Amino acid sequence: MSPFQSTRFRALALSAAVGLNAGCASNMQPRPSEPVKVKVFVAAMFEIGQNTGDRAGEFQHWYERYWKGTTPVAVPGALQPVYCNADGVCGAVLGMGKVNSSSSMQAILLNPKFDFSQAYYVISGVAGTPPSRGTIGEVSWATWLVDYDLGHRWAPEENKAGEPTFMPRKGYEEYRRFKLNPDLVAWAMKLSAETPLKDSDSARAYRLRYPQAAARRAPFVGTGTHMTGDTFFHGPGMSSQAQYIAKLYGADDYVITEMEAAAVTLVIKRTHGTDRVMSLRGAVNFDQGNPRETTLQHLDPAPGETAGGFAETVENIELVGSRVVDHIVANWPQWQNGVPAR
């Protein structure tokens, strides 16, 4: 072999070795981790402070039950990170209001770190209730979600006395109301209706300011229409309008006023449908004052005149909701392909 041939041979051998090593290195690269297969996603709207160890908001009791010690997963576009446990239960704080919560939900649903193809959803949080239908500390599963805002409104003085001051706006028919899966609602009630609920002396005293039998009840688990609106409406007139809208849209009685569920559900509908969506709310206030106070007094109460029971209600929400979450996860083979027959 000539010196030229020897040099050329060594160069070819070196080139082949480099190529082989490069191929091995390429084959040894770690694969991207598989997305988390979400079985149940729990959405809260706000937390007061930390996720654990201080005064609880909407997320803390869920966090302490399912995600304490887990690693948060940052999601671009979402308000807060997502937490998941080994059982496929995930959750996050989405933010208050329709835009805040729905944009967070959209970002989470589209993130490739999660597989939502078989997921169930629990949209949870605190709410208000009309004293004719609910009470402080109660927990309600939605049968319908109705958007309070999509329409035309005008001042009562510009109308005939007693007539509605709301007219639906055409073009919103497909996303101003959602009938949630009745079989899923029935399952939720079957699993949670007998949950022992927390109560407080301050809530008991506050209920007695109202003459309605429903308002004076001890906390219970019920169902009905949840009304979604960015406006905190108060007073018997606005409450009656909410009931009017619910009936106008063919929904059940309005029992809960909240700010997010219809918007979050619309986002889920566009990607996965609504058959696996649940809305769970706990009442921490009435949507109007008692007969001895004006609406403004109800909105801006004097010290010591506020409704009690907030701490107990946020605990009640998790106590009720976790019964359903735990059942779905424990019986996943029966639930993964859809809501089973009861």
UniProtKB/TrEMBL annotation:
It comes from the Bacteria. SUPFAM superfamilies: Purine and uridine phosphorylases (SSF53167). This is Purine nucleoside permease. It comes from Variovorax ureilyticus. The lineage of its organism: Bacteria, Pseudomonadati, Pseudomonadota, Betaproteobacteria, Burkholderiales.
